[in-house]
# Entry
Amino acid sequence: MDARRQSRVTDTTALQPPGQTHTATSGAPDNSRWWWIALAGLLLLGLAVIFALPGLVDPVPEATVPAQPPPPAGDTAALRDTAHQTLQAYLQLRARLDLDNAGAWGEPDWSEAAARASAADRYFAQRQFTAAVRDYQAALDHLQQLDASRSEILATALEAATRALSANNVDTAIAQFQAVLAIEPEHPAATRGLAQASSRRAVLEQMNRAQAAETNSDLEAARAAYRQATQLDTAYEPARTALQRVTGLINTRDFTATMTRALAALDAGQTGAAGKALAEAERLQPGNSAVRDARQRLRGMRAQAGLDSLRRQASGKVAAEDWQAATELYRKALSIDASAGFASEGLRRAEERSALHAQFDHYLETPARIYSAVPLANAGKLLAAASEAPPDEPRLAGKITALRELVTGASVPITITLNSDGVTSVVIHRVGRLGQFNSHQLELLPGDYTIVGNRPGYRDVRKAITLRPGMSPPPLVVRCEEEI
# Structure
């Protein structure tokens, strides 16, 4: 576009009907012509009534005056009409552009059009209609060119504003964005750009503050200033990039310190402290391979610590001959590490010892079991298989001794005496038939016995006797005395 449109001069000249003076913005009226103005006053008033008033009531469609060849030089009336029509077209277009605030964005065409129209007015007042037509047409051409160049002017101003904002030339950016908004008041890009330009000084102040803090290695202060800059202008890329970079530096610094603390704790065997530090490191950099490797090491340490603890607990249970509890502890150890040799070997021994103690307890908890032939034989086999208890198993030794005493006692017969009447037949269940007698003495192993006497015509007699090792039972009378 013509370079002259880069300037912005506000025109305050209002166009007048032909015969009235147009004063240029940059100059004063020519004093030598004041007498012309006085003489032309009546003429201007008449022309305004005759020509200007009808055109204002019934205006010609704007910007539609066709370029016509000028009338013959001697045709004064035709030249006057052409000048009037051109003036009407100019006034209508100027009025519309004035509503669009063209005075704020249409320089230099706006002022040049006004100047040419003012000159045309003077020529018209002097009845120099050919010159008046020429300058009215030139004024109209300037406004038509201005109207046609509106989009180009807007684009040029927007480009200049954007370029100035990128260079942090705040004043120029604000002026150019305001120029765009003068053409199109709700232009989105210009509205955003003006807001950015208005806050740019504050943004740059925060950027300078952040850079100074970063130079002094105060990363937290730098991050706070960069964040403030991004809040002032969310679209300012340098602030966003710097904030991301400083945030990354802080993250790396904190992560390195946290990992150093975690590894030191691992080396010292402080699994609790190591776990907390690694959790913080994972929060700082999720998925970091160093954290993953350290966690693997921590799991191994915790597993080993768990195994060591279970080994100690199981050893205590073994020493106390609490084989059931030891069995459970060895199983927990194997759930942590199936290849733990102490646990697999310990579990085998604990299960064996637990089963052996259960067999002894089977008899010792209910000694009466042993006073039967089959249980007594089985108890004997158990004692033979168990042999002697190891020195470090006194509980087992005590059970072996107790069962041996039970077996020994159950194997020693006890002498009992039975008295009858010689006519009652006596039978001892699980022993045999004794027949009829007055008195009979026999030996029975400890146990529970049932003795039955029967006699024809009499009710049977049933006696129960319990024999235990070391007993000397009194004589037992068995005879049928109640007739049926």
Notes: The chain has four domains: 3-148, 157-254, 308-410, 414-477.
